[in-house]
């Protein structure tokens, strides 16, 4: 089943290579995090492949960012219906996808893992380059300072998720410290 979904997603996102690369990393992170958790792998892997599927025909901006989890879940539902998945599977995958940006109260383990895998890709060198290439330097710095640095340590609750995040959290803190130091130094000279 995974291979059917991989070929669908690869084709759909072929003109959005950054989103496809992000999706692949999120699938890989999800599989790694799942190794220490009791999880339904089929639900998790399908959700990870389809979690950002709506970007194939959407442009990223602050408005579409707010609605994309919901939109991707609707599109995922349609795709899974076409390949005759059961209603139970479709409901689980779509609710897991909806939660990847903002977890509900009492999230399922699949929701938590997808959330962590997706948020891991906002940290580290790849995360920084994605933020700046998408939003530019000024808005990118605001996102890092307001939305990532103050919250990132609360995002990870699974053992593997926290392990994977530790080095990236350290790296992003170092990046922010160095950036601020260079700005201060440049104002002095
Ligand atoms: Fe997303
Ligand atoms: Fe994502």
Question: Describe it for me?
Answer:
74% of the residues lie in helices and 0% in strands. It is mainly alpha-helical. Helix 2 crosses helix 8, helix 3 packs across helix 5 and helix 4 packs antiparallel against helix 5. The structure holds fe (ii) ion (2 copies). One fe (ii) ion binds next to helix 2. The site of one fe (ii) ion (FE2) has 7 residues, from helix 4.
How does the SSE layout of this entry go?
Blueprint: H1 2-12, H2 17-34, H3 41-50, H4 62-82, H5 87-98, H6 109-120, H7 124-148, H8 159-188
The structure holds fe (ii) ion (2 copies).
One fe (ii) ion (FE2) is lined by residues 51-52, 68-69, 100-101, 118.
Poorly predicted ranges (pLDDT <50, ≥5 residues)? none
Task: Tell me the strand percentage band.
Answer: under 5%
Distance between the termini: 60 Å
Order of helices and strands: HHHHHHHH
What's the CATH topology label of the largest domain? Cyclin A, domain 1
Mind summarizing the main beta sheet? none
List bound small molecules.
Answer: fe (ii) ion
Anisotropy-based shape: globular
The number of helices is 8
Could you write a compact summary of the structure shown?
The chain is mainly α. It has 8 helices and no strands. It binds fe (ii) ion (FE2) (2 copies).
List keywords for this structure.
189 residues, mainly alpha, Cyclin A, domain 1, 2 domains, 74% helix, 0% strand, globular, binds fe (ii) ion
